[in-house]
Design a protein that fits this description.
By secondary structure, the chain is α+β, with helices and mostly antiparallel strands. It has four helices and seven strands. The protein has two domains: 92 residues, Nucleotidyltransferase, domain 5 (2-Layer Sandwich), CATH 3.30.420; 55 residues, no CATH class. The strands form three sheets. The chain has a three-stranded antiparallel β-sheet with strand order 5-6-7, covered by helices on one side. α2 crosses α3.
């Protein structure tokens, strides 16, 4: 397997300006990455979006930003569906990409390794903060009253326990 990646620096003015400028920048970065890859496609590509901020996630492709952290204060995003904001920017920039999933960085870490090794059961982030996500059997998740068998990824958000608002991703 070959992995190709690029890094793009987000300026302080993008972090603290209006969220439409921030999401336009992200869309521009995605377009540039596809150009650099030489990717030509007729139908939209599917994109999984890692978003490392507290979100109330209502579906695999929908989540409302609860609050910014890590020096971000971009106006117009708190209380908004982050996936929708990115989709709108991709449309504005005419980037043929469809956002099909959003996860936080810890869940993304777990899933990225599980792609290579399906027995992976935990992901941990040790960076500006820490967090963990793990795979749990549905039958053990009594809080949600779920039926059936299978597994669910539980995002612990252990780094936010001292905050007034603690986002839970499950």
């Amino acid at each position: 397997m070959t992995i190709k990646q690029e890094k793009y620096e987000v300026s302080d003015s993008l972090k603290t300006g209006h969220s439409s400028k921030l999401f336009d920048f992200i869309a521009d970065c995605i377009r540039q990455f596809l150009i650099d890859l030489g990717d030509a496609h007729d139908s939209p590509l599917s994109l999984g979006f890692t978003f490392s901020f507290p979100v109330d996630q209502m579906a695999i492709h929908k989540g409302m930003l609860l609050r910014w952290t890590k020096g971000f204060t971009a106006a117009g995003a708190v209380g908004q569906d982050i996936v929708k904001l990115l989709r709108e920017a991709l449309e504005r920039k005419n980037v043929s990409v469809k956002v099909v999933a959003m996860v936080n960085d810890t869940v993304g870490t777990l899933l990225a390794h599980a792609y290579e090794d399906p027995t992976t059961i935990i992901g941990v982030i040790l960076g500006t903060g820490t967090n963990a996500a793990y795979v749990e059997k549905l039958e053990n998740i009594t809080k949600l009253n779920l039926n059936g068998s299978g597994n669910m990824v539980i995002n612990l958000e252990w780094g936010a326990f001292d905050n007034e608002v603690c986002g839970l991703w499950a």
